[in-house]
Amino acid sequence: MNNFFKDKKVLITGHTGFKGSWLTQVLLNWGAEITGVALVPSTQPNLFTILKLEKRIRNNYLDIRDFQKVKDLLMKEKPEILFHFAAQPIVRDSYDDPLKTYTTNTLGTANVLQAIKETGCVKSAVIITTDKVYENKESHHPYRENDPLGGYDPYSASKAAADIIAQSYIRSFFHPDDFGTKHSTLVAVARAGNVIGGGDWSPYRLVPDIVRSIYEKKERIIIRNPQAIRPWEHVLEPLSGYLMLAEKLYNGEKSISGAWNFGPDEESFVSVEKLVDEAVRILGKGEIQISPDDSKHEAGILKLDTSKAKNLLSWKPRLSFNENLSLTFEWYRNYYEKIEDPIEFTNTQIDSFFK
Ligand SMILES: NC(=O)c1ccc[n+]([C@@H]2O[C@H](COP(=O)([O-])OP(=O)(O)OC[C@H]3O[C@@H](n4cnc5c(N)ncnc54)[C@H](O)[C@@H]3O)[C@@H](O)[C@H]2O)c1
Fold first, then answer.
1. Residue span of the structural domain in which 239 resides
2. Coil, strand, or helix at residue 4?
3. Which amino acid residue places its CA nearest to atom 26 of ligand 1?
4. Which of 16, 63, 139, 260 has the highest CB neighbour count under 10 A?
5. How confident is the model at residue 193 (pLDDT cuts 50, 70, 90)?
6. Domain CATH for 172
7. Shortest CA distance to 133 belongs to which of 101, 155, 108, 111?
């Protein structure tokens, strides 16, 4: 894959965020020419600044809700490959500001797809949604790509809507049957689970909450939903799937157009409490306090069936739950305890993963 991306013109929306910064670093290492479109980083610290990405790519601070600006940028940069990450991705924030969540996640996605349609330069587009797009039945049934979509909270509903918008664009304008005759763009939609890894400081997310409690506030780690089970996966796992999709779409593999799940194997469906225990063990510090659940409704059980990606892409999760947590919490320890240069440390993790 690294040879494929060399010198390719790639546009990443949401490149200042957690997943976008990791992807930008991976693609820089592989020699891609990167244009980024996002808002200024919203947390302090943040991975985008730590990796010094602003100066290493064609950086644009731009609101994806402004169609004309998105289109003008595509006209100017003419990317061949596009990854769409930009979103308001926090469930709790979506309760506080549902309209911002809906406009960013739905209109923003439609703007990106419409700009792709009107400019015609993008050959391969990967639209990132989430495992929360599925109508959640709170059962142990793992969701498959053709299960019904839905959404209880505004975040899930907005991402389900974004997913439907992307599929509507595929059917209406980027249909694989018309590829090469009526259009020259193939689009895939990627749904991943609870993604963790070094460099995330988003609010209301478990891993950032743990490291903030230990290293910044120096207080006990408060957990409210100890029994909630989540499909924890390291950020490099879904990214490797998105990269595979992008390459195959670029090469004109029509069967790749459509929706894909990227989740961990069964052993990584683990409770919040177990993850926190393991974090304390790896970091060698931290005390846990369980507090009554005052949170808004969030899905209790969420499992993904990844057999499509395994069978048709030969993608599979590479890390065990313990390896995932080691990579994640060792990244933060390295950062807070200033052991190694964080760019070099991040690159060591990327290299060892892709080897
Ligand atoms: N992190 C997870 O666990 C997870 C799980 C499933 C899906 N996802 C999806 O992956 C994507 C990235 O998530 P993340 O964790 O990196 O989030 P993040 O909050 O770290 O990054 C979000 C990015 O979107 C950009 N953005 C937000 N509003 C924008 C706007 N109006 N215009 C332009 N840019 C805007 C931000 O500037 C930032 O670069 C999102 O689409 C999210 O829904 C994340």
1. 2-195+234-264+301-319+343-354
2. helix
3. 86
4. 16
5. confident
6. 3.40.50.720
7. 155
